[in-house]
Design brief:
The chain has 466 residues and is α/β, with parallel strands linked by helices. Strands 1, 2, 3, 4, 5, 17, 18, 19 and 20 form a 9-stranded mixed beta sheet that branches. Strand 2 and strand 3 form a beta hairpin. Helix 4 packs parallel to helix 5 and helix 5 crosses helix 8. It starts with a strand and ends in a 19-residue tail after the last strand. The structure holds dihydropyrimidine-2,4(1H,3H)-dione and zinc ion (ZN) (2 copies). The site of one zinc ion has 5 residues, from loops.
Length: 466
């Protein structure tokens, strides 16, 4: 087994940043030492990595990705190989992806399909949440078996009628089941049937451009769904985690529930913190690049989301990475925004964008690590294997240079997609080195991780409940 000593860096955790050296034995961390202590103790590692001037972070954990997912008449264009490689380039060492149950199909079949998609391809470790697209007696029973297999969270949709939408009677049944087996319910909260009516009115008026994707999905119908789901969770006792919250009104509902002591949690995504509805109105159909659901919001919502992140009413930032190429995929909706595949590429830039939140004073250095690694690990039962640099934890470690600069471009990014929503943006801060279970998978601009080395993580129940 190789021993590695990371020296001279600043180890960042939710408790703050401290100068420390990190000793790794094989795949796990064996000690966090006072600077220089290894020498005094006579510890000679096989290799030493100089982290002077760098942050030493627990590897990022992105708990919301969609690799190789059938959606919107096509498939998301990153598979487990390209997507996890891009993740590592951006300082993420764990993802949790979403097997999709087919209508009339079984949940177990969905998870088995996703195991096959990931095996031999994943460059970093991964777990699964299961999407319940057909809540019925059989799939409800299957939830228990999946919990035993380490798939301990289930996503429901209040949006996408006819595709993913679960009705309130289905939602409450799934919540009761989760309440019994300890799983967490994840919710895409938007009132999809009401939105469909607004969409039909827009189309009837001849409004087919991408910006109408945003104009037909009002914030009020996100907040309404968040409220409805929160009430059902209260009745059933199920832990409830809202994915991709995009508005202050939605966060306010979560705040109220949390203040009442409930197990209700919120996630937001970089696109809602940094992009806004004006991007959907870009000319020459460029707005289609920014079509995701919930839609990008007016700019003033961003400050409310940053505030939610500071107060822990939003506990996690994940990407909802769901990339489609501008050509040909997004062109499906050239004449009708309803046919634009919903989703944005983002897995590679989450850590950098949140670091920008640190340099802008929106969040602290400690909070950066908390919302991107430590809390995701605890929320979804992976702690302390993941999300922390401590003895016994997996040596998933990122050396981050806070002074390096980079310019984002689709020409140089590593996601398998032909555009970037951050094209031309200048970032201060850059991932320098990435270790995944003790193995250097990226160093100084060279990727050395092999597809298939990533392992499935059998997750426990949430470790973040009140
Ligand atoms: N939203 C997206 O933008 N893409 C995938 C699914 C979703 O809910
Ligand atoms: Zn969603
Ligand atoms: Zn999603």
């Amino acid at each position: 087994m190789t021993t590695t000593l990371i020296t001279g860096g600043k180890v960042v955790s939710p408790q703050g940043a401290a100068s420390a050296d990190v000793l790794i034995d094989g795949e796990t961390v064996s000690a966090v030492l006072a600077p220089g202590a290894a020498g005094i103790l006579g510890i000679a590692a096989d290799r030493t990595i100089d982290a002077t001037g760098k942050y030493v972070l627990p590897g990022g954990i992105d708990v919301h990705t969609h690799m190789d997912m059938p959606f919107g008449g096509t498939f998301s264009v990153d598979d487990f190989e390209t997507g996890t490689r891009a993740a590592a380039w951006g300082g993420t060492t764990t993802i949790v992806d979403f097997p999709v149950q087919k209508k009339g199909g079984s949940l177990q079949e969905a998870v088995d399909t996703w195991h096959a998609k990931a095996e031999g391809k994943a460059c970093i470790d991964y777990g699964f949440h299961a999407i319940l697209a057909d809540v019925n007696e059989t799939s409800l029973k299957e939830m228990d078996g999946l919990v035993d297999q380490g798939v301990t969270s289930f996503k429901l949709f209040m949006a996408y009628p006819g595709v993913f939408l679960s009705t309130d009677d289905q939602i409450i049944q799934a919540m009761y089941r989760a309440s019994d087996n300890g799983a967490t319910i994840m919710m895409h909260a938007e009132n999809g049937t009401a939105i469909d009516q607004i969409v039909q009115r827009a189309i009837a008026d001849g409004h087919t451009e991408p910006k109408y994707h945003g104009l037909t999905r009002p914030i009020a119908l996100e907040a309404e769904a968040v409220n409805r789901a929160t009430q059902m969770a209260d009745v059933t006792g199920a832990p409830l985690y809202f994915v991709h919250l995009s508005s202050g009104a939605a966060v306010d509902v979560v705040t109220e529930a949390r203040d009442a002591g409930r197990n209700v949690f919120g996630e937001t995504c970089p696109q809602y913190l940094f992009l806004d509805e004006s991007d959907l109105a870009r000319p020459d159909f460029e707005g289609a690049k920014y079509v995701c659901t919930p839609a990008l919001r007016p700019q003033e919502e961003q400050a409310k989301l940053w505030r939610g992140l500071r107060t822990n009413d939003l506990s996690v930032v994940a990407t909802d990475h769901c990339p489609f190429c501008f050509v040909p995929d997004k062109q499906l909706g050239k004449d009708d925004f309803r046919a634009i595949p919903n989703g944005l590429p983002g897995i590679e830039h989450r850590m950098d964008l949140l670091h920008m939140g640190v340099t802008k004073g929106e969040i602290s250095l400690a909070r950066w690590v908390e919302i991107s690694a430590a809390t995701p690990a605890r929320m979804f039962g992976m702690y302390p294997k993941k999300g922390v640099i401590a003895p016994g934890s997996d040596a998933d470690i990122v050396l981050y240079d806070p002074k390096a600069t980079q310019t984002v471009s689709a020409k140089t990014h590593h996601m398998n997609v032909d555009y970037s929503v951050y094209e031309g943006w200048e970032f201060t801060g850059k991932v320098e080195t990435v270790l995944s279970r003790g193995e250097i998978v990226l160093n100084a601009g060279e990727f050395t991780g092999k597809p298939g080395r990533g392992q499935f993580i059998k997750r426990s129940l949430s470790q973040y409940l009140i």
